[in-house]
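Ticket opened by: R.M.
Priority: normal
Category: complex prediction / small molecule

The reporter submitted a protein together with zinc ion and asked that the result be attached to this ticket for the collaborator who will pick it up next week. Submitted input follows.
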Amino acid sequence: MIQTCRYHCRTCGQHFTSLAAFDSHRSGPWAERICLRGFEILKRDGEQLLEPVAGECRISIARADGPGMEHVPTDEIWRIPHPAELEEEA
Ligand SMILES: [Zn+2]
Ligand SMILES: [Zn+2]
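Result attached by the on-call engineer:
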C-alpha cells in the first residue's frame, strides 16, 4: 500500500502521514510559529522522532486540467515510526 500525505503543510510544503507528525514540526508560540524540517525533530532521548517514507502527495497541487489534485511522488513523507511507544512515554 502506498503511503500518502494526509497532512500537508502549506507554510513549508512538507508532507506528513498523521496529525501527530504534523504537529511535531510546528515550533514556538502561536504568533510566531515556525516549521522545523522533519529530520530536525528529536525525541527526548535525542533520536529522530520522524522517519521519511516514499509515497505520494495528493493534496498539495491542484490539477491544471480540471477538478481534483495532482498526484505528486515524493520520497519524503514524514511519519512517526512507533506511535504506540510514544503514547507510553507521555
Ligand atoms: Zn510546515
Ligand atoms: Zn503533501
